[in-house]
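Our preliminary data section would be incomplete without showing what the modeling component actually yields. Below, a chain of 324 amino acids is followed by its predicted structure, encoded as tokens that our downstream tools consume directly.
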Amino acid sequence: MSAGSGNGADVDAQATAWVVRSAERPLGSAEQRQLDAWLETDSRHLGAYVRAQAIWLDIDRVAALDSGTVREVPEPVRQRPWRRYAMAASVALAAFAGTAAYDHLAGRISTDRGEVRRIALDDGSVLTLNGNSAVQIRYEEDIRRVILRRGEASFEVAHNKERPFVVSAEGLDVRAVGTEFIVGIEDDGVEVTVEEGVVAVGGKASGSTQPRYVRRNEQFVSATTGPRKAVLDPADVERRIAWRNGMLVFNGQQLGAAAAEVNRYSSLRVVIDDPTLARAEFVGVFKLGDAQAFAGAAAQAFNGEVVRRGNDLVLVRQQNSPSH
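Predicted structure:
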């Protein structure tokens, strides 16, 4: 997150991102220094941060009351010299609308690394949120909208033709009436995989002014290289949703991609140093978060060894081992 004044919308968006990051996990020392520097760069930064923080705390307290519990909400950051100005800034800026912050925080549900949550929504639909993911629920009278902010989510949609169900992610809108599908934000774009029924894909990221229909066992990807659609084997669909049952299944995926998926659920990070090895195909079934079992199986499969470096499990080839 870079320092600099920017326009009002950019400042609000950066402040919101800092508040969300601080609330979801403790900031590292480097991140804390970066936040402090950003706050001290421009007085508008502090004001935007105070607004976003107030909105976040209000939302969190309401959520706690709705669930029948009352809990203390911790301060997202440690005390700093600039915080003596926070109260004055909050009073001076209270009249301004925190539109950007609210847009990114209201109705937010998120998961930590390794956490999978299954959530029953008000209309009878079911949302399953993958690890390190976040959504916002935006239900209105005439539409049920869910915004995927990061990660991946699975949806089992309750039928209601008068009130369509739409998932929005990175400029892509996925509309369903009664179906089951998964939407994930990946490095190369947004992936939509349909388990049952049909969805209509639209929005600026779809590459078309007309809806594109994706049916059972099909996948649509809005990649930077252009949108594409593919028919999947039913077994491949099952593999892609195995995380909902606490498992990861690999059946010919590249080892580097498999390691990235394992890292989503574990504080131990599997690192593939060798680019050739990262492209090798891999097969295996593992429990979510079991990075050690994955690294050990990969080392055995490719005649390598696992070297522990801090929280990294580095897979390296043994000397004079043959290439695969």
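Residues 1-5, 60-79, 81-98 have pLDDT under 50 and may be disordered. The radius of gyration is 22 Å. Preliminary results of this kind motivate Aim 1 of the renewal.
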